[in-house]
Amino acid sequence: MEFPFDVDALLPERITVLDQHLRPPARRPGTTTSARVDLQQQIMTIVDELGKASAKAQHLSAPITSASRMQSNRHVIYVLKDTSARPAGKGAIIGFLKVGYKKLFVLDDREAHNEVEPLCILDFYIHESVQRHGHGRELFQYMLQKERVEPHQLAIDRPSQKLLKFLNKHYNLETTVPQVNNFVIFEGFFAHQHPPPRKLPPKRAEGDIKPYSSSDREFLKVAVEPPWPLNRAPRRATPPAHPPPRSSSLGNSPERGPLRPFVPEQELLRSLRLCPPHPTARLLLAADPGGSPAQRRRTSSLPRSDESRY
């Protein structure tokens, strides 16, 4: 794939790795800011044209690789340059491979869901004029060494039949694990997948008392003794031989023990009249110099003396 600018000068290496910033691989000494912007714009043009060619080869309605998509995602693109062909001294691009890590929910052999974050093959394209010359394997193998992964550890996003045949031919990837999404994984994918350990909540100390604990409930179940003379009334209800079962939920109100019933008013008055006077009251009446209550009533009716005049 040819471009109107010098590809050899822009991409000095045979395989160039570009991240989301799409910056030139190496800064040239004495390059001004405007020149660096022009070089970045040339890289963006290469990415856009490669994405369009890949979408056309896969019969897609829209490209899945573009400069704007690269800048908004943490993906990496490997660009393969043709060093032998130099049309008009500007070089050419053979193809590219785009990869990136994604969080996926995949099924294993037992159809159990697993949350993983593997390296995914997102787009792969070799120009039609140079296919079947080993360029695809060269680019793919370089990526495996750079990312330090094995072929069976990869997840492929909507692979074409050409890509499936390519993986089967060069890496013996044939048996797939059925999935419910657009990604394809092969047998052996879960051989090196180690799920992160689950953090269990800290164990609560046995001595801590929770709200509405059993000790609080036992305290609330103690019956309160009514004051005299209510405690002399006969009980009308016999408490059960066994206390009611304690509630198992924390939200329910605690159960209280049986209390003595209230005494009717007439029975209370009758018990008060029949109650003998307290010994202390008798001593006070005997020590009163005014005498009996009848004597005090007779003396209170007499006229007062003239002591107030003096």
TrEMBL record:
It is found in: Cytoplasm; Membrane, Clathrin-coated pit; Cell junction, Focal adhesion; Cell projection, Axon. Gene3D superfamilies: 3.40.630.30, 6.20.370.120. Acetyl-CoA binds at residues 124-137, 160-169. Autoacetylation strongly increases tubulin acetylation. The modification N6-acetyllysine is found at K56, K146. Residues 229-261, 282-310 are annotated as: Disordered. GO terms for cellular component: axon; clathrin-coated pit; cytoplasm; focal adhesion; microtubule; spindle. Component of the BBSome complex. Interacts with AP2 alpha-adaptins, including AP2A2, but not with AP1 gamma-adaptin (AP1G1/AP1G2); this interaction is required for efficient alpha-tubulin acetylation, hence clathrin-coated pits are sites of microtubule acetylation. This is Alpha-tubulin N-acetyltransferase 1. It comes from Prolemur simus. The gene is ATAT1.
